[in-house]
Amino acid sequence: MAVAVSVPVSMITVGAGTAFAAQPEPNAMTFGLLGPVGLIAIVLGVLGMTAGVLRQRRKARAEAVATQADSRVEVAAESVPVSTLAE
C-alpha cells in the first residue's frame, strides 16, 4: 500500500521539477502559434477552406442547372400538341 501511494507522489514531484525546468526565460522571444511556420499553416488552412466552399458552391450550382434542364426536357416531352391528339 505504501508503494502504491509513494510512486504517484514521487512522479508528481519529479514531473513538476522537469516541467519547471522547461519553462522559457522571461526575456526569451517565443513565437507560439504566431511563428512563421504557424502563420503559413494558418494561411494554407484558410485558403483550403475557401477553395472547398467555392468548389461546393460550383458543384451545387451545376447540379441545379442540370436539374432545371432535365425538368424542362421532361415538360417538353409531356406536352403534346392538341391537334395531334385529335387526329
Write the layout of secondary structure elements.
Elements: H1 2-21, H2 36-78, H3 82-86
Q: Low-confidence runs (pLDDT<50, min 5 residues)?
A: none
Order of helices and strands: HHH
How many helical stretches? 3
Main sheet, how many strands, which sense, barrel?
none
Q: What percentage of residues falls in helices of 4 or more residues? A: over 70%
Question: What is shown here, in short?
Answer:
The protein has 87 residues and is mainly alpha-helical. The chain contains 3 helices and no strands. Residues 1-21 form the signal peptide.
Structure description:
By secondary structure, the protein is mainly alpha-helical. The chain has a domain at 52-78. It is built from three helices and no strands. The radius of gyration is 34 Å and the shape is elongated.
Keywords:
transmembrane; 3 helices; transmembrane helix; signal; 87 residues; mainly alpha
